[in-house]
Each structure stands twice: as structure tokens, then as C-alpha cells.
Design goal:
Shape: elongated
CATH architecture of the domain at 2-65 and 100-118: 2-Layer Sandwich
Order of helices and strands: HEHEEEEEE
Number of strands: 7
Structural class: alpha+beta
CATH class of the domain at 2-65 and 100-118: Alpha Beta
Number of helices: 2
Radius of gyration: 18 Å
Largest sheet: 4 strands, mixed
Oligomer: single chain
Strand order of the largest sheet: 2-1-6-7
Distance between the termini: 27 Å
Length: 121
């Protein structure tokens, strides 16, 4: 259900950066560690955008696979199971190097019958 609040945040960000222009699409990067269900996110995005300049906009996403990095030996790996131990040295102190993303990469807006891609800052 947290996809509803995430969709609302995406809408607010898109509208702020669109500066009054109709939004055609929003491209995102979503990490697998985020526990976001993309179909649910799209469903709620369609609901929260009704009656706004984002209504009908496509919510596109790229899934980012989890990548862990050992803080001891710097080895990186993609875990197959939720085990957070370095397969090289056995250290349990790891950082998430990738897979925790929830970023808007770009927003495509209409501009005088053409489209323009903008990147939020």
C-alpha cells in the first residue's frame, strides 16, 4: 500500500519540474531492495494523476538489481538469497552498492506541440 504515497510523491515532483506543462511520461530507476511492486505503483500513479497535468502520463521504470559491497575486502556481488555476508572473506559488514534506488531520471513534457525531456535536480 505504500505505493500510493510513493505515487503521490512522484506526481508532486513531476508537476513541480514540469512548470505548468503537460507531462507525457516519467522515467524512473527502482532498486530491487526497495520492495516496490511496479504494477501497483503504476496503478496508483494512474489514480493520483487524474485531473492533473500528469493525467495519462506513462510511468516507466528500470529495475536496478541489488549489488552488495564488502566493507572489509571491497568485493562486490549480487546476492541470490537474502544473506548479507561477503562470499570472499565472510565479513558481515556490507553496504548496498546498488538496488536501493528510487529515482526519477527524467520527465517528458509537452512544449508547444513538441516534447521536451527534463531531468529533475
Amino acid at each position: 500500500m505504500h505505493e500510493l504515497s510513493l505515487s503521490s510523491a512522484i506526481l508532486e515532483t513531476a508537476l513541480r519540474h514540469a512548470e505548468g506543462r503537460r507531462v507525457k511520461s516519467v522515467q524512473m530507476r527502482i532498486g530491487t531492495m526497495r520492495q516496490v511492486v511496479p504494477d501497483s505503483l503504476g496503478f496508483y500513479f494512474d489514480i493520483v494523476t487524474r485531473g492533473t497535468l500528469c493525467e495519462g502520463a506513462e510511468l516507466e521504470h528500470e529495475r536496478v538489481a541489488t549489488l552488495l559491497r564488502c566493507e572489509s575486502c571491497a568485493r562486490e556481488w549480487r546476492p541470490e538469497l537474502p544473506i548479507f555476508r561477503c562470499p570472499g572473506c565472510g565479513c558481515g559488514e556490507v553496504e548496498i552498492a546498488a538496488g536501493n534506488e528510487f529515482d526519477i531520471d527524467s520527465i517528458v513534457v509537452e512544449e508547444n506541440e513538441e516534447t521536451k525531456c527534463i531531468a529533475p535536480r
